[in-house]
Model the fold of this input.
Amino acid sequence: METPDGQPDALSDAELIARVRNGDLEAYGELYARHHHAAERMARQLVPANDADDLAGDAFAKVLDALRAGGGPDVSFRAYLLTTVRRVHVDRIRSGKKVQSTDDIASYEREPEGFDDPTVTGFESGAAAKAFASLPERWQAVLWHTEVEGEKPAAIAPLLGLTANGVSALAYRAREGLRQAYLQQHLADVAGDRCRWTTERLGAYVRGGLTKRENRNVREHLDECAKCTAVYLELVEVNSALPALLAPALLGTAGLGYLAAASGAKVGLVGFFVTGWRKVTENSTRAAVGGGAVVVVAVAAVLAAMALTGNKTPPAAIEQPTKPPATQPSQPPANPTVPPVKPTVKPPTVKPTQPSASNPTVAPTTAPTTAPTTAPTTPVPTTPVPTPTPPPATPTPPKPTPTTPIRYPGMVTISMPTGGGAPVTKGASGSAAAGIRFVITIKPPAGNANPVMITFKYGAELSWPIKSNPAGWTCTEATETCTAADPAKPKPIPVTFDAPTGGSAADRTFTVNAKTGRLYDYASRTLDAAPSTDENLLKILDGKADPDVHHRILTVAPRANRTKVTLKITYGKALEWPIAANPAGWKCSQSTATCTAADPDKPAPLAADFDVPDDSPAAARTFTVTAQADLVSDTDSEVLPGVQQDESLLQILTPTPGQDPNPFVYNRFLKVNGAQGRRVELDISWGRNLVFLPSFDLGWTCERTSDIRRATCWTNNYKKPLNSEWNAWFPGNGPDNALTVHARVGGREDTDSAQIPPSESRR
Done:
């Protein structure tokens, strides 16, 4: 490979490895120059500085032996070399123990401060390490250099034989592949359908790629499931702290020390939180994690990511879990702090009923001059013999209102307005299925005055079935509830669900819960998933205008919770397979003429490029595309036009004397305009007085038919006109002295003629 200025371009690590396997030791010298510094940095984490160079040299020798034997890495040389440094060091310790023993292992391996080796040992067999090991070696290499080593794409590009933009794109795909592989490690341990549904969406949840409703469902499940919460927090760690995960997996306890030597990261704090996090997630499978524990684990993961990345802002994907409501005590407290209620009327203080002899028998004419010091004031009796007032009776507390819910069967009824007929309603065109319609009837007790409310619950294949407020009801999609305007006689509610295209029975079931006062009732229905046609599923759009190629874009409408989307392409005899190799977002097979979307929920646009067909019947120029999304299908077709006439395409030129390459014959240059670098076909025929001489024009190939005056010439890379040479037996101006040329380039054609000899003096 050469650069535009003619200088040899740097070979990638993969190319150098291939040369080493073929016996080229100079190529290994280039690998040594690229990676020797990293090997020494790793060695210094294991042995004293004065022994690091020897350890690195032994590791390079081991790798060279492996490559010569046909083993070793194919792409990821750096990670393989660093692992070899660690293994050579372990072998040295084992061999040394055969002749001597020591209690001081610190002289052989210095571990990073604050990181616990048993934790790393447990991690090496964990899901993240297994997921990394399952990736293609090219993805492992780009993740190691970008995420662990922290190198820029421009510095990595020569190692991988890519441009800087190519490295960035490869790193993006590798990170996404690691997340998906990590989740696959956990799917095998998932017990219930609900946990599986959540685990399959955790990757998109971390990236903020779910819908509002899916986000809510995932959060609710994480609040209840400790095991899925642990998986989520580990995935956040995979998403935001790859260096702290991958380095120990490959390099052992020296991994974080290697990172610290390379970038100065504070690995002690990371080690502390990774250790604590592992303990919490290990216990989470045995006991439910409460709201407080979830917060602690989430904070640990966030601080670990912040310590490695230097980012003071925690990742947006980690949300604060919902705080559980405070529970009320089932029994009143033993010592209530509120004093008992006293009677509101205090009995008056009275004198003895028998007055003394010295007191007059008439009431005093004046009131006492001094008010009593105690409250409340007792009124002065107006009769000489006051009658004592009996104390008031203790008030009887009212009976508590019963709150125990009572099932009221028959309050909710779900029916189909078609009376059991076909439930799928038709769209405006009469062909597209618009949905399945039900009517919900609520019958509370006669004279009911309590508010009537219904709540909808539905599976993953269904969605909110009410587009606007039905008559007599107020509905809110956010809370999935409806409230009746007339609680005594609620009006029936019509609802329409989109026809499900798959899923389990639970995914296709909806439940209506009704409540008024203490009374409640519920009813459920399960929708059938049947094949249907949707004319809006597939669209064939015109691509860029091109006279030589029919560009078409195949688009599939997005929809959530789909499991598989396929396109089948059939075409007439005048057409060929139109899909390029490895289209983005699709996996295609020419042998089966099918393409499968990588993302069924949001399939990527698929480009289909048809060469312009020859003139042929319409059936030979027709292509058909059938889209199948679970149980929903759609088919579209198009008849492609044939070759178009272009009068400016071909010119038959007579050279000037100075341009004539052979003055003894008649030379004619066959020039094709606008065909530079394209395939050009020329069909040449001539009269009986002419002889077409063999052509030796470089780049052109000509074939002649012996029994007729006809030849075909073509080139796959048009650079210059074809020089055709002719002899004439007799002069003349009729068909016997005429040559005719038909030119074809892509979807254009042109036909021109010339006379030999010409009427002018030039040959």
User: Anything to note?
Assistant: The CA atoms of residues 230 and 281 lie 5 Å apart.
